[in-house]
Amino acid sequence: MLQLHFREMGQGAPLVILHGLFGTLDNWQTLARRWAEAGHRVIVVDLRNHGRSPHAPEHTYALMSEDVLGLFTQLQLGPDTTLMGHSMGGKVAMRFALDHPTRLGKLVVVDIAPRFSDMRHQDDILAGLHAVPLAALENRQQADEALARYIRQVDVRQFLLKNLYRREDNSFAWRPNLAALTAEMDDIGAEITAEQPFVKPTLFIRGGKSDYVTTEDKLYSIPVLFPNSQVETVVDAGHWVHAEKPEEVFGLVKAFVEQ
Questions:
Q1: CA gap 114, 133 in Å, rounded
Q2: 3-state DSSP assignment of residue 133
């Protein structure tokens, strides 16, 4: 169990937010501040091997669920807590809800289903990150040029470059543990299973232009594990629903946690 880095704001019923692969808690800062202003105690978290949280060679959902349990215990979060996660963070949230159903009241999962996710589409991203010559790097522009040979989408490169930082000796480094994430990529795609379903209220938010949550998921994989769930589609949004359509995500989550 690792002690996770987090940031807390606001007062009220707790809302804990988990980012996706290669993300950090900063990805959710703007929305977190709005939910805090709306009357919630919001805790945004860096998962293991990401952001400012500790690194470890293992990166499984069982272990990440236990990391989150440690955070719930540390912050004395009660059963009125809503746990929300996007993509990989959504699978962590599902695993936690199924493992520790009495520790939370509601679950929100953003653009991911419990089924196995083929992670081969991350190969170019991993290749690009590994190709950045950190030791010789003089500025972020050089890092972007190295990434561009593998990743054509500017917005994806900008998202990834948020993980680049300068050490005290002025050299560059990545915040994610690339060695562990590369080795554990199959585990990151793993299916979430359980003998008993999570029967408390659950909201799935999917992007209308994303294929991470399919019609088949809505009919089968989601209801089997989360029978008290609803699936809301944000039209004209891709996988990063919260970044593309923040107003819609803000409203959906606020209405769900307050009902």
A1: 36
A2: coil
Query: CB-based contacts of 195: which residues, under 8 Å, 6+ apart?
Result: none
DSSP state of 170: S
Residue 231 pLDDT: 97
CA distance 24 to 176: 9
| Residue 227 confidence (pLDDT) | 98
**φ, ψ (nearest 5 deg) of residue 123:** -60, -45
Q: Are 59 and 49 in contact (CB under 8 A)?
A: yes
What confidence score (pLDDT) does residue 69 get? Answer: 98
Assign 3-state DSSP to the chain and report helix, strand, coil percentages, each to 5.
45, 15, 40
One-letter amino acid identity for 20? G
- Contact assessment for residue 63 and residue 47, using Cβ atoms and an 8 Å cutoff: no
pTM of the complete model: 0.96
CA-based end-to-end distance of the chain: 33
Task: Return the DSSP state at 39.
Answer: T
C-beta separation of 94 from 109 below 8 A = yes
Q: How do 40-45 and 6-9 pair as beta strands?
A: antiparallel
pLDDT at site 121: 82
Instruction: Give the pLDDT of residue 242.
Output: 95
Residues of the chain with pLDDT under 50: none
Cβ atoms of 34 and 44 closer than 8 Å: no
